[in-house]
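Quick one from the shared queue. A colleague (R.T.) flagged Ig-like domain-containing protein as missing a structural entry in our internal table.

Convert sequence to structure tokens.
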Amino acid sequence: MCSYYPAAPPQRWLHLSTGHTVPMHCLIHSLFLPSGLLVRSLEYNQPADNYTVCQGDDAILSCSIDKEVTRVAWLNRSNILYAGNDKWSIDPRVQLLTNSQAEFSILIASVDVWDEGLYTCSFQTQAKPHTAQVYLIVHVPARITNISSAVTVNEGSDVSLLCMATGKPEPTSVFVSVSPPLHTSSPHTDGFTSEGEYLEITEINRQQAGEYECVTANGVSLADSKRVVITVNYPPTIKDVKDAYPPVGKPALLRCEAMAVPPAEFEWFKDDKHRLFGGLEGLRIRNERTRSMLLIDNVTARHYGNYSCLASNKLGVSNASLRLIRMSPSCTTAGPAHRHSPVAPPTIPHSPRPLFPTAPPIIHSWPCPLSFKTGPAIKPLMGYSNI
């Protein structure tokens, strides 16, 4: 539905209404004597007034007459709709509302675009024939008739979206980004807009993935809108990984997180050659959408060493190295797990005999990481050492 609220000037004799709460009138000037006799009518060369209605509304065309009028009719272009009480139109939407000495009016129900055009009220007095004309304009709310389907492309590709709309007056369309990118923590460009029926993105990146909304409007009714999703595929990127420092007999956890579309598949290796599988040697592997965790319920000496995490999808592969490091027993109660990779402790040689019998013995030790000594106590996640 559309609404118009123009001011209705006084002293008009052709009245047109849409039947709205605040009706719109398209009126043609006339002049009346006190007796009510019409003395001036519309000349043939005078332009017709415009009467604007919205598609689907009813239009009422009313012609003010008086007792001097002997014949009256409403015509659409050259086709007679009603002549007095006689209906000439075969359109069931055209109905006679009033035929009296003061008014002759018809109704056109559910107006559509093909009803647009020139309408004439023609009436005959004893003196001469008179006519009054109005041009019916039908406005159509903006509607989206075609929009691109969801798009999936690889990063670096060009993307083109289409949004076609119809309406009268001609609508304008705008593409607006309305959601953050999918499956990435990268910032999104808020407030991105592109005017027109087409949205062109050259060499799209993962930050430009997400929902795009096409909004079209022409001022007749509320704007129409539809959304389309752009998915951008890209190879895995492994985020920072951390070593673990569990003591013997305690649980441990190594975590590997990777951002990728489609989501990455994870594999674990020990010493860069042996692939690990859950359920063997006290290991469990838990995979989620963006991360994989290698869990050891009870650490033994054979568990210490170098581990590799491999994340892959159809666009590429990424890997990272982690270590399970054995620490001195004194470190197990000194503080939380160390968050940075220390240099591996050197091999301690046999202590040489002191040069002097009175010299104190030489003691070799590998100190705990600094965070064990000074860091605040942090409870390991799920009872596993160093996440």
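The first strand starts at residue 14 and ends at 17.
The chain has one helix and 26 strands.
Added to the table.
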